């Protein structure tokens, strides 16, 4: 069974990843080149 701690950690991980993705897209649109896109694909 999946523990609540694991499920909660996974949820926060997804939420944080979504926020970082938005910030990376916003930063990539304002900055020249795609310096952040390579890091997010790891």
Number of strands: 0
What is the terminal separation in angstroms?
A: 28 Å
Form type: rod-shaped
Q: What proportion strand?
A: under 5%
Look at the helices and sheets and give the structural class.
mainly alpha
What does this structure look like?
With 42 residues, the chain is an all-alpha fold. Helices cover 74% and strands 0% of the residues. It has helices spanning 4-30, 37-40. The termini are far apart. The mean pLDDT is 77.
SSE layout:
Layout: H1 4-30, H2 37-40
In short:
This protein has 2 helices and no strands.
Q: Which features would summarize this protein structure in a list?
A:
0% strand, 74% helix, mainly alpha, 42 residues
């Amino acid at each position: 069974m999946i523990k609540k701690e694991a499920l909660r950690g996974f949820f926060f991980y997804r939420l944080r990843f979504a926020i970082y993705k938005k910030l990376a897209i916003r930063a990539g649109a304002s900055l020249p080149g795609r310096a952040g896109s390579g890091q997010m694909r790891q």
